[in-house]
């Protein structure tokens, strides 16, 4: 697609030119809301409820960012972006921050001129099979027919995985997730492979989800995270530390329910006090109010609460924490200290 | 021989006997139309089978086993195995209005009703002609109702052409004394156009804020990103249709013009726009225009899209109308000239009425295509009905629903497109002059 190349080139040019006039945080404060780019609809991550209000895993992080700046999780406007428009929307300044399950890659970080602020979901490519097949591990998939979305990195990962394990497979190329769902359910393929969160969301839509299992192997790295334009480090810091604050909050046991009380009465843990603005000047350094993190946590709870409410095991999507568990509990979520 | 052979003379007509049942009546109709030959019989039976199997699966699914009261797809499935129409019951307002604020939703409804009123004199000859003036004001009224803000903005915009006409009158009168009438006319028209455009660009905002400071009449402003669903489709579709028709006529006439400059511009415009896919134009509207405009200008996305869609449809419209113009016998043009009519009069009174009549099917075809193309705005992240569907399906409660939602959208588009097509047939019949 030539046009796509042209747009991305233009986006890159724009990104370079906006680098000169930094100050997104001031702009955002002046207009009174954060413009957040989200997906046009991804189960569990971004969707609208019955009243037309945006909700979801990514959306809640956006709201926390808005709350940190304005003390109000509703001081935010959402721009639904597609896979094609997300980067131009960010580069042109149409959105201030992009929370759209975007994989952190070198070329996006360097060539397109964005800054990734961290990872809010560690995804990876997985496999779904019918329970009746009796397969317990992806290593037993020799000779299987696999539904695979063409032209994606998942296609390449799949080929690598099977070659590395000395197995053969028969690909069934498909275009969209909806098509894959239908092919898989009509037995056109034994296995469906895509990002594990997508597999879980897809399985949740089946009439009998219990008849299908996700295999334990994850064969690729897809770190999904928020991003902003290159060159505006103050704004990037705000987004990065809101994310970190929510992760630390889970580590320190600060929840939506007890954050107000902890902020009022203080805690025996000095880091909690620094985080919640009782001690130190973290807020001033970021250009925010003292209690910025209190508002951010009050918006949707800590990382664990956001995860459980939107995509966790109690929801229809039913994702396990896995890699997205805290480092102290066997995952790789690790936020730098507040000091 | 007294037997008189009086010849038998019928005293009246023999009453016509009814045609045999093999020629009329339901049985004959069935025979003639459905079972006239072996192959037709086979086709008829096949057709009946197809219709039956369609109905046999659709009717129970849609009517008998459908679920209207449920809070999620899982709920639906636990109640019955038919269509889960509860999702439409819960979300139909989102499909209609997008994210339009709840308490302001009467405004699009009023705008829609007024649109029907405004269309009445345009579409049907029976309506009072004076209503046409109301129709001309409608765009400003609809804009004000849907987007809100002060009432002075739309009034100032509508005042643009009036200012232009005044300028035209004055310049024309002054220049007529100084130079040749034709040149004076051209100068006056171009002056008026320039002044109107300048008015829109520079004066409207000033007039708006000045008058708003004096007398603040207005509605709660609603931002464009709140507008979605069928409302968005209708805004883009209706303004695209209304704008592309006059623009298309102008382009078609321009392309057939003898003035080389005008002809080159019109041909270039048409060929350029037709050579580019609509999606590309939409990307230009949403993304690239941002780069070209001075930083800080907020040029409404819906307005940008409407302009692009209008230009796109106008290029196609121009070619359809040019087809109509080309189909007229040369004698019609010559007859108009022979009557001594000038260019505009001959076009208005003789050529265009005939050419447009010929082009009706093509014109309506373009309209319908344009209306359905409005769903393409999803690629630039605008939430038209198909776009609204994404976030709804991403909701845990409704994740996995496909047919019900797409069907609902399909019905909406069918109603409007079928309506347009019926109207075009009505118009063709009404304008039938029996040349054929």
Task: Characterise this structure.
The complex is a heterodimer of chains A (339) and B (436). Chain A is an alpha/beta fold and 339 residues long. Chain A has 2 domains: 2-122 and 223-329, Periplasmic binding protein-like II (D-Maltodextrin-Binding Protein, domain 2, 3-Layer(aba) Sandwich), CATH 3.40.190; 125-220, Periplasmic binding protein-like II (D-Maltodextrin-Binding Protein, domain 2). Helices cover 40% and strands 19% of the residues of chain A. In chain A, helix 3 (57-70) runs antiparallel to helix 13. Chain B is mainly α. Chain B has 3 domains: 28-79, no CATH class; 92-100 and 225-430, MetI-like fold, CATH 1.10.3720.10; 149-219, no CATH class. Chain B is built from 16 helices and 2 strands. Chain B has helices spanning 25-33, 38-64, 73-79, 86-97, 106-123, 131-147, 152-178, 181-214, 229-255, 260-274, 278-292, 301-327, 330-338, 343-373, 385-394, 403-430; strands spanning 149-150, 218-219. Chain B has a two-stranded antiparallel sheet. The radius of gyration of chain B is 30 Å and the shape is globular. The A-B interface holds A 3, 7, 10-11, 13-14, 39-50, 52, 54, 56, 77-82, 84-85, 88-89, 92-94, 178, 201, 204-207, 315-317 and B 73-74, 77, 90-91, 93-94, 98-99, 223, 225, 280, 283, 286-288, 290-291, 378-383, 387-397, 399-400, 402.
Beta-strand percentage of chain A?
Answer: 15-25%
Q: How would you state the average pLDDT of chain B, rounded?
A: 87
Q: What is the tally of beta strands of chain B?
A: 2
Within CATH, the superfamily of the largest domain in chain A carries the name Periplasmic binding protein-like II
How many structural domains in the coordinates of chain A?
A: 2
The low-pLDDT segments of chain A are: 1-7, 9-20
Q: In CATH's first tier, which class of the largest domain in chain B applies?
A: Mainly Alpha
**Largest interchain contact:** A-B, 43 and 38 residues
The CATH architecture of the largest domain in chain B can be given as: Orthogonal Bundle
Structural class of chain A: alpha/beta
CATH topology of the largest domain in chain A: D-Maltodextrin-Binding Protein, domain 2
Helix and strand composition category of chain B: mainly alpha
């Amino acid at each position: 697609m030539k046009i796509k190349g042209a747009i991305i080139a233009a986006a890159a040019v724009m990104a370079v030119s906006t680098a000169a006039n930094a100050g997104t945080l001031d702009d955002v404060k002046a207009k009174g809301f954060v413009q957040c780019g989200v997906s046009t609809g991804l189960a569990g991550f971004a969707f609208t409820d019955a009243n037309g209000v945006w909700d979801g895993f990514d959306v809640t992080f956006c709201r926390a960012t808005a709350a940190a700046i304005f003390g109000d999780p509703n001081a935010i406007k959402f721009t639904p972006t597609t896979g094609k428009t997300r980067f131009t929307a960010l580069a042109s300044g149409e959105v201030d921050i992009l929370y759209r399950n975007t994989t952190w890659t070198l070329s996006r970080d360097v060539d397109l001129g964005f800054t990734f602020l961290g990872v809010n979901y560690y995804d990876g490519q997985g496999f779904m099979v019918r329970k009746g097949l009796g397969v317990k591990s992806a290593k037993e998939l020799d000779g299987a027919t696999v539904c695979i979305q063409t032209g994606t990195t998942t296609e390449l990962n799949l080929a690598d995985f099977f070659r590395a394990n000395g197995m053969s497979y028969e690909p069934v190329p498909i275009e969209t997730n909806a098509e894959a769902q239908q092919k898989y359910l009509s037995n056109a393929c034994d296995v469906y492979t895509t990002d594990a969160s997508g597999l879980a969301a897809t399985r949740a839509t089946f009439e009998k989800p219990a008849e299908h299992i996700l295999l334990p192997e994850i064969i690729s790295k897809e770190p999904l995270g928020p991003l902003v334009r290159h060159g505006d480090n103050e704004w990037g810091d705000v987004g990065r530390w809101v994310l970190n604050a929510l992760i630390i909050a889970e580590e320190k046991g600060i929840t939506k329910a007890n954050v107000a009380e902890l902020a009022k009465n203080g805690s025996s843990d000095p880091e909690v006090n620094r985080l919640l603005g009782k001690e130190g000047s973290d807020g001033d350094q970021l250009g925010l109010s003292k209690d910025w993190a209190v508002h951010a946590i009050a918006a949707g709870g800590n990382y664990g609460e956001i995860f459980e409410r939107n995509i966790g095991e109690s929801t229809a999507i039913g994702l396990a924490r896995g890699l997205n568990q805290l480092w102290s509990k066997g995952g790789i979520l690790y936020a730098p200290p507040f000091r | 021989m007294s037997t008189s052979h009086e010849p038998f003379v019928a005293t009246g007509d023999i009453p016509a006997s009814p045609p045999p049942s093999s020629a009329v009546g339901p049985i004959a109709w069935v025979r003639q139309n459905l079972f006239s030959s072996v192959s037709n019989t086979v086709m008829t039976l096949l057709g009946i089978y197809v219709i039956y199997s369609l109905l046999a699966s659709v009717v129970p699914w849609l009517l008998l086993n459908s679920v209207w009261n449920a809070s999620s797809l899982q709920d639906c499935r636990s109640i019955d195995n038919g269509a889960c129409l509860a999702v439409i019951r819960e979300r139909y307002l989102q499909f209609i209005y997008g994210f339009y604020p709840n308490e302001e939703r009467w405004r699009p409804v009023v705008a829609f009703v007024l649109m029907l009123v405004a269309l009445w004199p345009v579409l049907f000859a029976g309506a009072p002609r004076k209503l046409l003036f109301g129709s001309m004001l409608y765009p400003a009224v609809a804009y004000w109702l849907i987007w809100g803000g002060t009432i002075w903005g739309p009034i100032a915009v509508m005042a643009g052409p009036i200012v232009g006409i005044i300028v035209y009158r004055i310049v024309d009168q002054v220049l007529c004394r100084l130079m040749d009438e034709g040149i004076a006319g051209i100068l006056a028209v171009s002056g008026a156009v320039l002044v109107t455009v300048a008015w829109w660009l520079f004066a409207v905002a000033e007039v708006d804020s000045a008058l708003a400071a004096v007398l603040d009449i207005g509605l709660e402003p609603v931002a464009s990103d709140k507008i979605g669903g069928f409302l968005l489709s209708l805004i883009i579709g209706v303004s695209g249709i209304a704008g592309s028709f006059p623009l298309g006529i102008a382009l078609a006439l321009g392309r057939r013009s003898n003035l080389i400059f005008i002809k080159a511009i019109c041909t270039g415009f048409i060929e350029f726009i037709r050579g580019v896919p609509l999606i590309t134009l939409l990307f230009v509207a949403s993304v690239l225009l941002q780069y070209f405009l001075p930083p800080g200008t907020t040029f409404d996305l819906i307005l940008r899209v409407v302009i692009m869609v209008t230009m796109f449809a106008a290029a196609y419209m121009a070619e359809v109308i040019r087809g109509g113009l080309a189909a007229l016998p040369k004698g019609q043009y010559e007859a108009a000239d022979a009557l001594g009519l000038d260019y505009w009069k001959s076009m208005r009174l003789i050529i265009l009425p005939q050419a447009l009549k010929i082009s009706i099917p093509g014109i309506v075809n373009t309209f319908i295509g344009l209306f359905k193309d409005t769903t393409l705005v999803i690629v630039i992240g605008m939430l038209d009905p198909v776009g609204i569907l994404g976030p709804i399906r991403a909701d845990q409660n409704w994740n996995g629903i496909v047919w019900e939602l797409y069907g609902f959208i399909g019905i909406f588009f069918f109603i409007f497109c079928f309506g347009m097509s019926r109207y075009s047939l009505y118009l063709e019949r009404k304008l039938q002059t029996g040349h054929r």
